## 1
Amino acid sequence: MDIIQIIFQIALIVVPAGAVLLTAIFFLRKESEKEVRSLRIELQRERQKYFLPHRVEAYQRAVLLMERIHPNNLVMRLHNPGLPAAAMQAKLLEGIREEFDHNIAQQIFINPQTWEIVRRSKDETVKIINLAGNQMGPTSVGMDLASKIFEIVGEVGTMPTEIAVAALKKELQELF
């Protein structure tokens, strides 16, 4: 009976001590999780404070890119009526390429799906310029090309650049 009493006495000490130890571990773990959550929130705020201005600027620049490569704006900015149509077409395509290349780094801050819309918009604008250029004769001049581009833009309705601008604005508004 002595051994049973000793085991019982040890159990009376160990079981409550174990329960206290498990309770302490449970509460310490909860407190640790709270601290980790708090640190994550603080890091997220700091990241937001740093990245948000850059993201806003990226959206602004992407919208500006879309406005600058809109066929109407592009023609008005780069138009040279005496230039042969083929040379004018090359000048317009070069303008699109330069604008896009100048802003390509903005994709770091823009949602990949939205950047894809921007990229496709650029490609569709190139197609419009090439479509108009392919309809020019050997004696056509820049004025003829410009007229044809305006005609195609009028037929298309909503331009790809306008769709991209709407997507960029929508996504930017979702940040706030």
## 2
Amino acid sequence: MASNALSGTKDLTKGSELRAILLFAIPLFMSNLLQQAYNLTDITIIGNSLGDDALTAIGTVSIIYDLFTSLSFGMSNGFAIVVSKYFGMGDQKKIRQVIANTAVLAVIWGVLMTVLGTTLLRPIMRLLGTPEEVFETGFSYAIIMLGFIIFSFTYNILSALLRAIGNSTAPFFFLLICVVGNIGLDLLFVVVFGMGLPGAAIATIIAQTVSAVVSFIYIWRRVPVLHFTREDLVFDRSMITELISAGISFALMFAVVNIGTVILQSAINSLGVVTIAAHTTARKISSLCMMVVGTLGNSMATFTGQNHGAGKYDRIRTALRKVLILDFIAATLLIIMIYAFGGLFVRLISGSSNPELISTATYYLRFDLPFYYVLSILLVVRCTLQGLGSKITPIAASLMELLLKALTAGVLVKYFGYTGIAMCEPIIWSVCAVYVLIVFFMNPHIKALRQNK
């Protein structure tokens, strides 16, 4: 299958490995950057317009919303890995069938996430010990977000399918529409109309819905490889099993990670309102930094999926080595930037002049960033394994992360205070990185990658 032989597609199994990954990764990076920029802008608008209490309310419920979002995001990524494999094989009939089955499973999953999210929101908030002074405010925001999460999932699944066939450019423009609209509606609903956090949630839902509709129209008109007919809705047990197992694997991986973060959030909630706001700000900045080192890793999943389908394991080996080198360079630049300007970033994002908030958030960033070399190894190798169809390793690593967060969160906070929170993830990244490296070099299921073929 030649590159761009099908409208809206890109074959990653030919040409220079690094060039193919970079051309795929640049729009993906821009999409992630745009998403993070929006998240930071959203926090800035809320923090400056509604104050520290609103920022705290967002911090207490965003972790819950992120849990359900990650379940949906993980499922869409799992489906996309299977699609990328069939795309690499070049079997048009199988591609249509896998797209058809993906559509059915996506509808079922989207409805399930909506029902579970809205039903469990209040009990989870109580379980986490959400401060009473921000409980109802946070609930009013999260219930809207979870009630319409299916629109976010629709955009995620359509974007994931486009990336599976090598098209990372179109999702960037769809996200651009979403972000620009979201910021405009945030200013309108929150600042002009004074609708508070519910206004911010409504703005997000409207923007996501528009983005999902535009994505669907683009695929319908420009990407025939993602079309299917009623005849393609064939019950293929092996294909459905592959889709479900890949989707559940990714969803559980993200869910377990986020459950661990929820556990960590409960420990943070015990440290007071200022610390919650500081940590919320620091996590927004650290998410932006993680996105830089994580984008190439995520690109490796699609690159590996297509080349795995084509049986070109030598390309995967070469790409893996080059991507790790680039990630280490990026980590070095991020460390320098945070140590030089971390406090300034915190002040700009939080909109707060509270010296305790600024110093706490800056401390967290300076503690975590030096461990990004370890994080790079974890993300790149894990994504490569996922592209090769490994389902157990991501879940096992995520369960390891959950266990370590559950064991260390309370203990570290008890003896080290907020330093314990800062220590938690670097410890976990180190342990999980060792584990995925052992699997990579020892697991017989990736023998083809380690051999010269």
## 3
Amino acid sequence: MLQEEIINKTLNTTLTTLLEKIQNKTIKVGVIGLGYVGLPFLVEKAKVGLHVVGIDRNEERVRKVAIGENYIEDVHDNELKDIVAKGLVTATSDMSALREVDVIVICVPTPLDKNLCPDLHYVISVSHLIAENLKVGQLVSLESTTYPGTTEEIIQPILESSGLKAGSDFFLAHSPERVDPGNKRYSTHNTNKIVGGVDASSLKAAESFYRLAIKDVVPVSSAKVAELVKIYENTFRSVNIALANEIALLCDRMKLNVWEILDAAFTKPFGIMPFFPGPGVGGHCIPIDPHYLEWKAKEYHFDMRFIALAGEINRKMPNFVFDKITRALNNVKKPLNGASILMLGVAYKSNLTDHRESPALDVYRLLKNAKAEVQYHDPKIPYLEEFDIHSTKLTDDVLRASDLVVITTNHTEVDYQQVVSMASLVLDTRNATRGIESDKIILL
């Protein structure tokens, strides 16, 4: 009984000390991964007066953060410069810096392998490095999206290999990122934050920490629940986008305008939400995250059929766009081989500089493999390293010289009236030419 009292007293002291430091804003925070999730998170924490160290193996990112040079659209340049100037932010590639922080936040990629299976090597690698530097009283929180059980089944054992125990010596939680790049209304600060701990003490520590800079924190009963919440959110979007894409495929055969149908359907004030078709899905969430759940479900002999079907439909859309391009050229007696095609937009989403998993890249590959002459214009992405090509300037001459212009991303700064006026034929996969009347336009 005496030993149990000593353990409880130690736990209470460790947790109380951390909570007091959080309350007094004297904690130092380490953010591992300075990408689309990590950098905005770092800025939000520093803006409330916390000292934050950004840690990344990418030396160029480290260099830029250290001097206050921004490279993420959702971060305001002046905010990063300001917190760096105040000495609230430092950056390093040295993981030993974790020994000096009180809270460690993991914001590393969680991609899929070529067989659509989870690839957790970043999470696992970082967890081992944290274990080497872990100290009593620290809070570790995973923000990266992953399957239910990752925090408890993968990260916790690795961290406990240090000899410290979760829930008593250190605290462990999962709080999935909810970043929506380019969203002008919702940022890290005002997007509700889900938090789940591996035990009650970890939840208390994590909830207290996140409340410092997040407007509304939503605690849940476990890390597994928090992990599944995030994947459900992205699965919801994937499935509904797939439905819109499938309706577009049907409308193509029925010779109906899918955009007119959706516009009319979305006038209903209840029971429906707007989701739109397109050339496919891109980004770091929708094409990837649902398959983490599909993979994990097989452990329970359960098939997530909606996820599998939605993924199949969404992945086929670039091929459908390729087919429409072929048909459009055929109708004007032009072969695809040697055709001059201008793609407008390679970002996965309008007004972003991000082309991760962009379906436009798949469309480009298909066209190049068919020996078409392909150029692209994207005001946000001047160079595509994957293909070693630069964005071409959008001029009247370029438009007139193209046999077909394909709108694959609807950036608002592009003058679509100019595009339609100068081009001989336009395939619009995003309804960017809405309101423009012309026989030249072919809709998805």
